[in-house]
Write a structure and sequence with these properties.
This protein is of the alpha+beta class. The chain is built from 15 helices and eight strands. It has a six-stranded antiparallel beta sheet. Strands 7-8 form a two-stranded parallel sheet.
Length: about 450
């Protein structure tokens, strides 16, 4: 009896260990889509090639508005400092009067606008000012309502301040010696953005406009359905927005994978690509998201690389930041794109392009910093130690033309790691599952021996 119980426990352990390795079913072809689905995707791409060749790739795109400014943080005499700033005190005079203020000079500040959504209230347009650099701290941020067209105000020789009294009693102020500027991107970068917009199709959303938050259970035997049934089911699940309740909740990604599969089966390329890119970039809403769950969420870039599309231009097109983006332009996650590139068959080509972009003096500073971070994520997820060391040295040369005020204080050190964005844990999800099961088995075996 004991041997039978032990056998069942060991068998269960092996099954759980194997199933914990993959979040989606992996077919014999090595993809998360069957041969049948991949064949249909190939046919879709072949039939759409003429459309992509006729895309307008001559659109001019502009960098985000940016300038070099100074940042002040002060945690005493706050009201007096606010009054002086409102009166337009000069920067040097402010430093003389408040020598205890924390100061960061000549740092890059980028401004962007977005709509803030309030329940049962009109959307409010906000302006987001944020410091960007490679320093090892979170950049200063000020968010203001776009009153009196603040977004288009040049801000030269002016102050912007915000009082942070909710969590820490301090005043944060930006001083702008020069006006914000936006510059056109070079043709090759603009073509990558245009290609991404053309391939993704900014007019077709993944979910329906009236989608409601709801639950999702993956249907069984999807491949047995007729095309009419698949089309009806696709419309149904596109009407549901799935929210993750915790880090381990895989429902949002399962929902997107099901939409992607059904879209491919019904020749709906636009919805397929958005769904697959959401999986790659992990673009999902969760109530909480611990880093211990990140390792299991792969990017599945090879599913796209096997199709006849330019994956290099696609990923750069969604990684660059622009001022005049099309409505519903798809922006990727720098960390997730870096991980995808590390898993790509064209990893070396990607890296060379990134190094060139980082050192390109004709590219705006904000996008050069973005490409630097992307390259560091690529290196972080690369499991080849020798290649990592080589890339670290190449990065040191690539950043040589960036202003010193943007560089890491420890720039000459070889141990580069991703700044600002949180790093994935080295203690992956599958390891947690394995140890939990092992401990449970040991406890059960101890109880069996006590019987």
């Amino acid at each position: 009896m004991k041997k039978s119980i032990l056998f069942l426990l060991i068998t269960g352990f092996i099954w759980l260990k194997l199933t914990a390795q993959n979040e989606f079913e992996i077919y014999p072809n090595g993809f998360i889509y069957s041969d049948q689905t991949m064949l249909k995707l190939h046919h879709i791409v072949d039939s759409l090639n003429l459309k992509y060749k006729s895309c307008n790739l001559n659109q001019v795109y502009y960098s985000p508005y940016q300038t070099f400014g100074h940042i002040i943080v002060i945690d005493s005499t706050i009201k007096e400092a606010q009054r002086d700033i409102d009166k337009g005190i000069g920067f040097e005079k402010f430093l003389e009067k408040y020598p205890h203020a924390q100061v960061r000079k000549n740092t890059l500040i980028v401004k962007q606008k977005y709509d803030h959504y309030y329940q049962d209230a009109p959307d409010i347009e906000m302006v987001f000012f944020r410091e960007h650099s490679l320093k090892e701290y979170f950049g200063g941020t000020i968010i203001k309502e776009n009153k009196n067209d603040l977004y288009h105000h040049p801000q030269k020789n002016s102050w912007l301040h915000d009082y942070h009294g909710d969590y820490t009693d301090k005043l944060v102020a930006f001083y702008f010696p020069e006006a914000f500027q936006s510059q056109p991107l070079k043709a090759k970068y603009a073509q990558q953005i245009g290609y991404a917009d053309c391939l993704i199709d900014t007019l077709t959303p993944k979910l329906k406009k009236d989608a409601q938050i709801g639950k999702f259970e993956k249907p069984e035997d999807l491949y047995c359905l007729s095309k009419i049934e698949k089309t009806a089911l696709l419309e149904q699940i596109r009407s549901i927005e799935v929210i993750g309740y915790c880090s381990m909740d895989s429902k949002p990604r399962q929902h997107a994978a099901t939409i992607a599969m059904l879209s491919a089966e019904t020749a709906n390329w636009e919805v397929f690509l958005k769904s697959h890119l959401d999986i790659m970039n992990d673009h999902f809403v969760r109530a909480s998201d611990g880093d211990y769950a990140w390792g299991r969420r792969k990017t599945y870039i090879k599913e796209l690389e096997t199709l006849d599309i330019n994956v290099v231009d696609l990923l750069f097109g969604i990684a660059l930041t622009i001022e005049n983006a099309a409505t519903n332009h798809y922006y990727g996650s720098v960390g997730r794109i870096g991980r995808a590139i590390a898993e790509s068959k064209d990893k070396d080509f990607f890296k060379q392009q990134l190094l060139q972009m980082i050192s390109d003096n004709e590219l705006d500073y904000h996008n050069r910093l973005q490409m630097y971070k992307l390259c560091m994520y690529l290196n972080y997820y690369n499991d080849n130690t020798a290649e990592q060391e080589t890339t670290e040295q190449q990065l040191l040369y690539a950043v040589a033309s960036l202003p010193n005020s943007l560089l890491l204080e420890s720039q000459q050190k070889s141990n580069l790691c991703p700044p600002e964005d949180p790093q994935p844990t080295n203690f992956p999800y599958t390891t947690i599952v394995t140890y939990t099961i092992v401990l449970a088995l040991l406890l059960l075996l101890w109880l069996i021996n006590r019987l």
